[in-house]
Amino acid sequence: MKKTILIYFLTITILFAIEVPKSTVFDKRVVYTDFNKDDVFQIYAKNGYTTVIQFADDERILDMASGFSNGWDFQDRRNFIFIKPKAYESTFAVDEYGETVKKTTIIEPTPIEWKTNLIVLTNKREYIFNLDLNVEKNSFFKFTFNYPLEKLKKEDIKQQLAKAESEKQDIQVELNRTAVPRNWDYYMNINPESESIAPSFAYDDGLFTYLGFDNTKDMPSIFLYENEKESILNTHVKKEGNYDVLVIQKTAKQMILRSGKRIIGILNKSFGVNPLEDFKNTNSPNIERVLNGK
């Protein structure tokens, strides 16, 4: 008994997505589309007309290629490409006997034969276009790209920078909190001709030392004097009323102010008399100072 074997052929249809741009409400020949690196973008051109493609302002065309360059004219200017279909000359033809003869023929654009693609490389992106010569639909006069993902990235960066700047200002406000003086028991030994670097006041809050200078004084460098040796101290400056206040990030028994040959010795007579109960390293309860280690 013969067996009949049935073979079924499955037809698979592959669909290719073409990104057709959306026209404006003012004129259907002016269109916009969002850029997607995996899309092929549709261009409808018309014989006798030019279509301009506009890329991002910071883009420049590096190279482009088409499958039918004889039938299309491409010109790039900065971030623009101008496209128009064109006729071309053929120097060979077939006579009535079927033989090829040398003869110049002008071949005019037709919708079927002028279908092709265009690849564009810029300094930032790659673009793929499908070019159609269409007599039934409106041709495109201007084709403009939008870049929503890049816009979102820029907005996100802008928001992050604004947030960082706001946090920086908040931290500065916290760091500039007015200190509560705990100790005013400071004395100075002013060397000859050193009055111009002498502070107008000195106090500490148990954590930092504050030296105030009015606008008639020069602000000196500050050094810790300990065991007959000098070492530089970390400082920053803040404004308090009419005074520039040199904030020394430490309390110490002896310090030295220097500016050229001008020298002043600072003595804290109450150093260690009234220590803080709880350790802290800033005047703000919301800010902690840490040292960056290498």
From TrEMBL:
Xref: InterPro entries: Conjugal_tfr_TrbG/VirB9/CagX (IPR010258), VirB9 (IPR014148), VirB9/CagX/TrbG_C (IPR033645), VirB9/CagX/TrbG_C_sf (IPR038161)
Q: Which UniProt keywords apply?
A: Signal
The answer to whether keyword Nucleus applies is no
Source species, domain of life: Bacteria
Stored NCBIfam families = VirB9
* Family membership noted in the UniProt record: Belongs to the TrbG/VirB9 family.
What is the protein's given name? Answer: P-type type IV conjugative transfer system translocation pore protein TrbG/VirB9
